Every structure is written in C-alpha cells, then in structure tokens.
Recover the amino acids of this structure.
C-alpha cells in the first residue's frame, strides 16, 4: 500500500510592516480660480502678506501658470485646529470675494524612516523577538529622539520658505495597490531599498530644488503631497523625469494633477490679480 503524501498548508507570508514615520506641521494646499467679473472687483481693505510665522508655521500664495486654477494658497501650521484657522483666514483677504475654491489637499509633513524600521525589524528577528515587542519599542523610542534632533530631519518637518526660489510646483501622488504592483505587499527591506535609491536621485538636486513631502493617508484620497521650490522652473521637469526612472516610481507610483506657479511677493496678492 502506498501512502499518499501528507497535505501541507503553505505558510503565510510575513506581514509587510509599515515604516515608522515622524510628523511635523500640518499642511493645507488650496487651489482657487479668480472671478473675472468686473462687478466682483473690490478695493484692497487690508495688506495681504505671505504671513511667515517662524515658530508657528506660515502661509504663502503663488500665482499659477498653465493651470485651470489661478491661485494656490499654502498653509503650514503646528496643529490641525491651526490649519482650520488658516483656512478660514483666507475669507478675510481683500481678494476673497473673487476667489472660487477648486481643489484642496490636507496633509502633514512627514519623514519616512524606512531604513531605520527595516534595521530594527532585522535586529528583532535575529534575537528571536518580534516587531513591536519591548526591546523593539525601547530601541525605536531612542532612535526617534535622535532623528528628531537631526537638523536635516527638522528642516523636512518644519520647512521654511526658501530664499531665492520663487517658483513652486505641487502635486499629489499614491503608491499602487494592484496585482503584481502592490507597494504595500512588498517586504520592508525591499521598500527600504527602493526608497533609498529614490532619495539618492533627489539629493542630486540639493541647492537647486527644495522638496517638502507631506503624508495624507487618512486625510485625502491621495496618499502624499509633494511641494517643490526652485530658482529655475526647468528643474521641476528634470527632477521629476529623473525620479520617474527610479524603480519605485516606474513600478509603484501614480500621480495627480500638477500645479505650477510663482510665489507672490509679500503684500502683492491683490496687485497680482488686478488686471484679471
């Protein structure tokens, strides 16, 4: 009698752990069209400024070029409630009666700790522990404090309006979740490798482009927002082109609409649209 081989149940694939992240200021991007009807023109009733608030965030405005919208407002604040105040403050601008909201994007500045999380997960596995156990949590807390004190990380979480970079580009993006191209099904080590390569491409543009990454999972249909500042707008094209040839973008990224324009100097918002 020949015994049939015992049936085996395939072991479940290891869980794809999310990377740890650091968050800083909340962000709100608003896209407006400007009503061109003469009857809606108003005289300035108050100065309109970029409203820089070094310790508590800032707001800035950009006149859009080549877009369905005319104006982009960018607000960065410490809390979600502060963002609500900034959102409502737009209605107090002298140009407010002419503004028509076309799109908005809510998010928070984010630094993804892919490499750190992958390293801690490997350490846990080597000692026979698990992600999230006491040793992992203790090591994570220590490393997060170190990361928050890193000047580079702080600039990412609490960005300033860069000097000499008047052009701005904003776009939302997400990672794919389709068969054969599911970012969230990749191992943490693989995602860490891909993001490290992706980051190296961005670093080649240091000094030419300032990049602000904001996370929007749970806040918006798109998962991240990217805000770029540059002296030369052609650097937007060059940077985004280079990054699309990285494997992480070529295989796993979807992009929304791009909004490109030029920052309006402090106090000049009304004047920038007076001819419309």
């Amino acid at each position: 009698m020949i015994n049939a081989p015992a049936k085996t149940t395939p072991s479940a694939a290891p869980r794809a752990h999310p990377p740890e992240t650091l968050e800083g200021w909340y962000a709100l991007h608003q896209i407006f069209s400007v009503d061109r009807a003469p009857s809606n023109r108003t005289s300035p009733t108050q100065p309109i400024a970029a409203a820089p608030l070094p310790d508590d965030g800032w707001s800035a405005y950009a006149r859009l070029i080549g877009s369905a919208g005319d104006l982009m407002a960018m607000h960065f604040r410490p809390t979600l409630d502060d963002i609500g105040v900034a959102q409502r403050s737009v209605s107090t601008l002298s140009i407010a009666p002419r503004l028509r909201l076309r799109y908005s994007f809510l998010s928070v500045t984010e630094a993804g700790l892919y490499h750190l999380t992958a390293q801690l997960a490997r350490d846990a596995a080597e000692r026979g522990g698990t992600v999230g156990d006491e040793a992992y949590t203790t090591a994570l807390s220590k490393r997060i404090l170190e990361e928050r004190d890193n000047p580079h990380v702080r600039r990412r979480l609490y960005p300033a309006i860069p000097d000499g970079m008047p052009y701005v580009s904003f776009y939302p993006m997400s990672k794919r979740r389709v068969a054969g191209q599911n970012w969230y099904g990749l191992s943490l080590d693989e995602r860490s490798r891909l993001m490290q390569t992706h980051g190296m491409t961005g670093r080649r543009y240091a000094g030419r482009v300032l990049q602000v990454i904001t996370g929007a999972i749970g806040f918006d249909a798109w998962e991240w927002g990217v805000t770029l500042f540059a002296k030369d707008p052609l650097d937007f094209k060059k940077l985004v082109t280079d990054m699309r040839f990285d494997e992480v973008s070529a295989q796993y990224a979807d992009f929304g609409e791009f909004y490109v324009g030029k920052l309006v100097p402090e106090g000049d918002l009304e004047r920038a649209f007076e001819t419309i």
Summary: The radius of gyration is 23 Å. Confidence is low (pLDDT under 50) at residues 4-13, 39-51. The CA atoms of residues 68 and 144 lie 41 Å apart.
